Amino acid sequence: MRFWTSEYTFSHSWDMVTQAAWRKYPNPMNPSVVGIDVVERRVDGGVLSTHRLIGSQWGIPGWIESIIGSPSVMYANEKSEVNPKDKIMTLKTRNITFCKHIAVDETLKYTPHPKDPEKTLLKQEAVITVEGVPLSSYVEGLLASSISTNASKGRLAMEWVLKKINDELKELSHTVEKNKEELINHTIKSIDDMAVTAKKSLKEWVKEPVASVPPMPDL
Fold first, then answer.
1. Three-state secondary structure of the chain
2. Cα distance between residue 180 and residue 185, in whole Å
């Protein structure tokens, strides 16, 4: 059995980072993830629970493939909980493929940074167990190294998504301001047009001759 842990701080709020976590795939940093399907999603007591099936390509060494095989796509269960009140997002993943020989239990936990609530702390850990495979300890080491590499790519992917979200927010803000300015200009123009029309009507009314009053008949 092999343990792996890591921590990383995002310079973004918890709300934004959790949004990015849902939009993490697909991304150019993790091309090994080829598909994600939502199996179940529900809300209990204000907590969002989601079960997803993740398909990916591991790229394991050839000599291990000759022992346990190598399907083109390998699957894993991901179960997550998002508690917006306490601001905790937890994702737990365990592989389905090769589970008789290789078990990788990975946990990611996103919380506001204890020293700066405007930042987000990611705590990541994995437990790797290999059985029924020669040189199991060596294989566990290979998997731990692979998890570390993929974790770095995953953080880059999150930063990439966060930049996209920031760009989208800026574009939305620009669009709102533009529409607001156009609305103000349109309103001012409408008021000016109404004023011109009113002045024109008033001038025409003043110039219009007053009808003569007929004399009173003699009684």
1. CEEEEEEEEECCCHHHHHHHHHCCCCCCCCCCEEEEEEEEEEEECCEEEEEEEEEECCCCCHHHHHHHCCCCCEEEEEEEEEECCCCEEEEEEEECCCCCCEEEEEEEEEEEECCEEEEEEEEEEEEEEECCCCCHHHHHHHHHHHHHHHHHHHHHHHHHHHHHHHHHHHHHHHHHHHHHHHHHHHHHHHHHHHHHHHHHHHHHHHHCCCCCCCCCCCC
2. 9
Q: Say if 184 falls within a structural domain.
A: no
The amino acid present at 157, given as its one-letter code, is A
Tens-digit pLDDT string for the chain (219 aa): 999 999 999 999 999 999 999 999 989 988 888 899 999 999 999 999 999 999 998 766 666 666 676 677 889 999 999 999 999 999 999 999 888 888 999 999 999 999 999 999 999 999 999 998 888 898 899 889 989 999 999 999 999 999 999 998 888 876 776 676 666 666 666 665 665 666 666 566 666 555 555 565 555
The reply to whether omega before 214 is within 30° of 0 (cis) is: no
Cα 31 to Cα 52: distance, rounded to the nearest angstrom: 18
Domain around 54: 2-170
The CATH number that applies at residue 57 is 3.30.530.20
